[in-house]
């Protein structure tokens, strides 16, 4: 996510940190470089002008924080202004009404149908009872695709594809009598430059949705602004930005909120039904600037029980290689490992194939050990390492590296129990 933008911004701030005390000329040069980076990332030129105008004003007028270097102070200001221009704070869908009606609209190819399934999964996991409805009479097999997704995430499905204007009100009337509290409606897309289907302007007033969410592909950059403007007359309440995991530039995320006057509410970060996340402007600014997203990482790990298992290990004061493998397995369930690692400060997103290969190697090594060796790793000497390496198809060096990583994890858990770890090292106070 945002690899190109993040790498280039990191180079700018790295050069500024190397100067120590910044002159006004250094700041101006840095802002010119940031401007070039943002424009090359397909951020709208008016957004760039507004962002850097406020950064320049604050960089000159604010007093320096004693604990920060001038370069860190500039980084802090850029982060805060990026956060502001992306909406300032996280916004939630309204989900008003009984049942709440959420209508997804947008151009063709933006990922509306897939997003409907992801949104259904997101709400179901949080105790809501969603119903997915296909109201797309124009795309062949649209209803079939959504029905398959609904079955996969175990939520009910209904079709209004034949005549949405008459069928959808009937479906909503039935939903009020059934155990459904959110109805998610998938609608047809249109080619770029073509207005939304005419029937939508009649349909929406008849069903009074609480949320009309514009679904846009992040990878089209600031072109998303022009695509989204065609749908504004429908009474949009927010944006869902899809395919953010494949966006190396970040132009859409930085441009859309201010140019369309709408908050980004969710982002799609992968292909799985679970890969829909609330949009957090502050966290997104951190990731763009290479500062990571530790809060998001912790939330992902909590979802699959990693945090709870760690607490149990801390209570029992025992951490074996079996526990180590179980933790790795749980982390995998939280999503692609490369996505998780990319949330760590200072790390770009590694290749998924490399991460997966390393995980398989570690798993093979542990599974080649005896039960006694897994529970008492200190007994693993040279001859045992050679046997384990042969059995797992790896090398003694690989076995040594795994044991070293296990010891590091064990040490980290001990320090957590003693309260020695209070947070990561960031370039400015948080």
Explain how this protein is built.
- The chain has 430 residues and is an alpha/beta fold.
- The chain has three domains: 3-85, Four Helix Bundle (Hemerythrin (Met), subunit A) (Up-down Bundle); 100-289, P-loop containing nucleotide triphosphate hydrolases (Rossmann fold); 296-418, Signal recognition particle, SRP54 subunit, M-domain (434 Repressor (Amino-terminal Domain)), CATH 1.10.260.30.
- The protein has helices at residues 3-17, 24-40, 45-61, 70-85, 112-125, 142-153, 164-177, 198-207, 223-229, 251-260, 281-288, 294-303, 306-316, 321-333, 337-341, 352-367, 371-375, 382-392, 396-418; strands at 100-105, 130-134, 157-159, 182-186, 211-217, 238-242, 264-268, 276-278.
- The protein has an eight-stranded mixed β-sheet, sandwiched between helices.
- Helix 9 (223-229) links the parallel strand 5 (211-217) and strand 6.
- Helix 4 (70-85) packs across helix 11 (281-288), helix 5 runs parallel beside helix 6 (142-153) and helix 14 packs antiparallel against helix 16.
- 39% of the residues are buried.
- Residues 420-430 have low confidence and may be disordered.
